[in-house]
Amino acid sequence: MALDPQTMIDRYLEAELAVLDGKEITFNGRKQVMADLPQIRAGRLEWERRLVSQQRAFAGGRPGYSLAVFD
User: Fold this and answer.
1) Which of 1, 69, 70, 71 is the 20 to 30 Å CA partner of 33?
2) In this predicted model, what pLDDT tens digit does every residue of 39-68 receive, in sequence order?
3) 2 vs 34: CA distance, rounded Å
């Protein structure tokens, strides 16, 4: 089963918020605490990049910026 990028982003955000609140959680089968925050954020950023890439593919592969034409 393919993982949905938005679902994974949501899960990482939940984990990030829980850890920031001082809670000890289990995420991806591992206990996570405040010291794990950089890894949680890195995972979220990776899934956000995947989502943007997927959205660009569905939009015809256009870049995420506009090109200006100056006459």
Assistant:
1) 1
2) 989 999 999 999 998 888 887 766 556 667
3) 29
Residue 27, in any domain of the structure: yes
How many domains is the chain built from? 1
Does the residue 38 lie in any domain?
A: yes
Place of tokens 């890439």: 53
Whether 30 is covered by a domain: the verdict is yes
What the block records as the tokens of 9 is 């982003």
Predicted TM-score (pTM) of the model is 0.70
Question: For residues 40 and 12, what is the distance between their CA atoms, to the nearest angstrom?
Answer: 6
Residue 36 has a CB neighbour count (10 Å cut-off) of 18
Give the range of the structural domain holding residue 19, as residue numbers without chain letter.
5-53
**What span, in angstroms and rounded, lies between the C-alpha atoms of 40 and 61?**
29
Q: Determine, yes or no, domain membership for 11.
A: yes
Average pLDDT over residues 7-11: 93
